[in-house]
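Below is just one:
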Amino acid sequence: MEITELGSGSASNTTNRFSDLSSDEFMRIMFTELSNQNPLDPQDSQQLMEQISSLRSIESDVQLVAQLEQLVQQNQLASAGSLVGKSVSGLDEGFHAVNGRVQSVSVEDGTVFLNIESGERLPFDNLEEIYDDTLGH
């Protein structure tokens, strides 16, 4: 006779579902909850203020994360731009070795790429070495 644990799967599924919620979805749920309160049994003011404060805090955090991501991308783009004309090596998106002189820099879907003269692209995050190819690298 096999004995299985009750409820173990549903708890982890619920946790996973909540962690998969985006902040926009969470805020939408909170706004819906606030707007659909029973007028005959409203929540107390302090609880309502705590929920509104939580919403504002979440919105502020989301904006801060977006601004930080943009700042990181701008920093990477500026750093990558200084490599134009220099020789580099690293791994492409398929983790194959790439080396050569940087011809230009581009951004695609938030990723900064070093465009190598050979036509290959090197994600800036995968840059391993910057070298002077006149020294016989």
